[in-house]
From TrEMBL, chain A:
Protein name stated in the entry: ABC-type quaternary amine transporter
Keyword Lyase annotated: no
Residue ranges of the region described as Disordered: 395-431
InterPro entries: AAA+_ATPase (IPR003593), ABC_transporter-like_ATP-bd (IPR003439), ABC_transporter-like_CS (IPR017871), CBS_dom (IPR000644), CBS_dom_sf (IPR046342), Gly-betaine_transp_ATP-bd (IPR005892), P-loop_NTPase (IPR027417)
CDD domains for this protein: ABC_OpuCA_Osmoprotection
EC id: 7.6.2.9
A Pfam family assignment: ABC_tran
Species of the source: Streptomyces piniterrae
Automatic annotation (TrEMBL), chain B:
Record's subcellular location: Cell membrane; Membrane
PROSITE patterns linked: ABC_TM1
CDD domains xrefs: TM_PBP2
Source organism (scientific name): Streptomyces piniterrae
InterPro entries: ABC_transp_perm/SBD (IPR051204), MetI-like (IPR000515), MetI-like_sf (IPR035906)
One BP term from GO: transmembrane transport
First-listed, main subcellular location of the protein, grouped into a coarse class: membrane
Ranges that cross the membrane: 24-44, 65-93, 183-204
Stated name of the protein: ABC transporter permease
Family: Belongs to the binding-protein-dependent transport system permease family.
Domain ABC transmembrane type-1: 18-201
Keywords per UniProt: Membrane, Transmembrane, Transmembrane helix, Transport
Length: 431, 215
């Protein structure tokens, strides 16, 4: 997520480049599900407010009711009691079929209909709500484009002719086709291999940055939750909310043993996944062109603060690390001197990637590159250490500042809701 | 008279019988298909209703066809009526059973997805469940047709239409000059019809089973 720590609410901070929020807020009030014949409720009195344009993750051990809670939002499972509000509409009693056409739904293994082509699958919801044919056609192409599939190539394919990852993309395209303000995702990436899952997660982050839907995402993978979520709801049995907060806050300040148990070991390391290299400072390093005259490089090494320079190739990409000692053995040519740069990180890399690169580098530093691989700066162990300390300190301060307030979900109302999604639950006395 | 001379002499009568045989089987299959699929749709969701439908149709199939037609004559009279009723009843079992198996075999995740994206009950049935259950249903229809081809011959016993008349005439006059030719031409006609129908079903399968789920 492109947010800097400290602004926990992405929708309010007006992150540069993000489009207008197209989502609608969701409120769950005293939501309960009791299955007939079972002694206790499967979901017990859940209260939750999800802001418009927010990506909220429900995470918890299997059988904790997270999926049931999700399915009550589009009433695939009818709640026994409680209210559901989307935007400013109470949807607890409206026709469920109508409700579901306004709520995108993506599930594990994509749920694509095997007897329909990719295009037919995506067109389903727009067709049901009566869009004109031409609009549906262009929308299908648009959606395929959006999820990174070439419309010309994939339009007429059947699901079984796609890889698991491609099916999942089409599943997301289908869920978004009618432009619903809310998207529900039930372990959508649970059945694909780890590499594909990683790609799909990156895609979802990009998509959400563009679309700003309100997304509820169920997973049992805490790392996935940290990577994707604006806020994470950690659920324990019967869907009781153990903690509902930003990933930063959960990692640095878990409310109880259940949460810290779920977060698992290495919270500080996981915290590194949440910050990108571009969010922390990179240091300047003396550089020289690989074709520069030897004398000027020698002069640079003499005058510079370090006994090393980074040689750049004609495209300004990092090429070689050159130490003073290498120079004495160079004998007039740089061709054999120095060590080739074998690893760089981009500005978008997480601090964890950067740390990995720094740790594997013999001299404990790694060059940071821009979009086209051009040199930007260098990250070393010292900068990383300082940055991580500052991050953790800032997280702690923020957590401490929030401490006296009651938990998010228990707060009566009156959150300043962005996106003008109107009336809050204050007047929702119909239950 | 050789078999071919017999066929040459009697071709007008044989063609009429063949046509009537095919027409009877075809019409009864249409009724049986509609009834069978409707029965399947009505019962597949419930365990006991599904078993009831399968058991009932299976029981009907165990009644010897000659006996069933014999039993129907006092009730509905001779001719077309007992033929149509008997053929339709016999055709039901494979269709009902395959419809139930096919509909129950649809991946529940897909039904869930269909519900989740806002398909109504009817849309789910017609756009997702039935198309996905169609290959096994078509197999059931195919099996039922093969079966009815043979059973339709018995209908001649109740003065019904079709190639059975040829066979029954032959059996009645066993020992006479054309008895064997009559039985043979009726039987060969039925076999040819059965093969033709089967070819048509292969074609129907090609045309109606979507490419995405074709085996």
């Amino acid at each position: 997520m492109p947010e800097t720590p400290g602004t926990s609410n992405g929708t309010d901070s007006g992150t540069a480049g993000a489009r207008a929020v197209s989502g609608a807020g969701i409120q769950l009030e005293n939501l309960t599900k009791i299955y007939p014949g079972s002694p206790g409720p499967a979901v017990d009195n859940v209260n939750m407010e999800i802001k418009a344009g927010e990506l909220v993750i429900f995470v918890g051990p299997s059988g904790c009711g997270k999926s049931t809670t999700l399915k009550m939002i589009n009433r695939l499972i009818e709640p026994t009691s409680g209210r559901i509000r989307i935007g400013d509409e109470d949807v607890t009693d409206i026709d469920p079929v109508k409700l579901r056409r306004k709520v995108g739904y993506a599930i594990q293994q994509s749920g694509l209909f095997p007897h329909m082509t990719v295009a037919q699958n995506i067109a389903l919801v727009p067709k049901m709500i009566g869009w004109p044919k031409a609009k549906i056609g262009s929308r299908v192409e648009e959606m395929l484009d959006l999820v990174g599939l070439d419309p010309g190539e994939f339009h007429g394919r059947y699901p079984r002719q796609l890889s698991g990852g491609q099916q999942q993309r089409v599943g997301v395209a289908r869920a978004l086709a009618a432009d619903p303000p809310v998207l529900l995702m039930d372990e959508p990436f649970g059945a694909v291999d780890p590499i594909t899952r990683d790609h799909l997660q990156d895609e979802l982050i990009r998509l959400q940055h563009e679309l700003r839907k309100t997304i509820c995402f169920v997973t049992h993978d805490f790392d996935e939750a940290i990577k994707l979520g604006d806020r994470i709801a950690i659920l324990r049995e019967r869907s009781h909310i153990a903690q509902f907060d930003t990933p930063e806050a959960i990692l640095t300040n878990p409310t109880d043993d259940f949460v810290s148990g779920f977060v698992g070991a290495g919270a500080a390391l996981k915290r590194l996944n949440l910050t990108r290299v571009r969010d922390v400072g990179v240091v300047d390093f003396p550089t020289a062109g690989m074709d520069d005259p030897l004398e000027s490089i020698v002069a640079l090494l003499r005058s510079g603060p370090t006994n090393e320079v980074l040689l750049l190739d004609p495209n300004r990409r990092p090429y070689k690390w050159l130490r003073r000692g290498d120079l004495s053995r160079a004998k007039g040519t740089l061709a054999r001197a120095g060590t080739l740069v074998h690893d760089t990180v981009t500005r978008d890399a997480t601090l964890r990637d950067a740390l990995e690169a720094v740790l594997t580098d013999s001299a404990g530093r790694v060059a940071v590159t821009g979009r086209r691989g051009e040199y930007i700066g260098v990250v070393d162990m010292e900068t990383l250490m300082n940055n991580v300390h500052e991050l953790l300190e800032a997280d702690r301060l923020e957590a401490a500042a929030q401490e006296p307030e009651p938990d998010e979900q228990d707060r009566p109302d009156q959150q300043d809701r962005p996106g003008g999604s109107g009336a809050d639950g204050a007047q929702g006395g119909t239950a | 008279m050789s078999f071919w001379e017999y066929v040459g002499n009697r071709h007008a009568q044989l063609l009429t019988d063949t046509y009537q045989h095919a027409s009877a089987v075809f019409q009864c299959m249409v009724i049986a298909t509609v009834l069978g699929v409707v029965l399947g749709v009505l019962t597949y969701r419930s365990d006991w209703a599904g078993s009831l439908a399968t058991t009932t149709t299976a029981t009907i199939l165990t009644i010897p066809s000659l006996a069933l037609i014999g039993l129907l004559i006092p009730v509905v009279g001779l001719g077309v009526a007992p033929t149509v009723i008997a053929l339709t009843l016999y055709g039901l079992l494979p269709i009902v059973r395959n419809a139930i198996v096919g509909l129950r075999g649809v991946d529940p995740a897909l039904v869930d997805a269909a519900k989740g994206i806002g398909m109504s009950r009817a849309a789910r049935l017609f756009r997702v469940e039935l198309p996905l259950a169609w290959p096994p249903i078509l197999t059931g229809i195919r099996v039922a047709t093969q079966m009815l081809m043979g059973i339709a011959a018995i209908a001649a016993y109740a003065s019904g239409p079709g190639l059975g008349n040829e066979i029954f005439r032959g059996i009645a006059s066993l020992g006479s000059a054309n008895a064997l030719n009559q039985v043979l031409s009726g039987t060969v006609g039925i076999v040819i019809l059965a093969l033709l129908f089967d070819a048509v079903y292969v074609l129907i399968g090609r045309l109606t089973i979507p490419r995405g789920i074709r085996a």
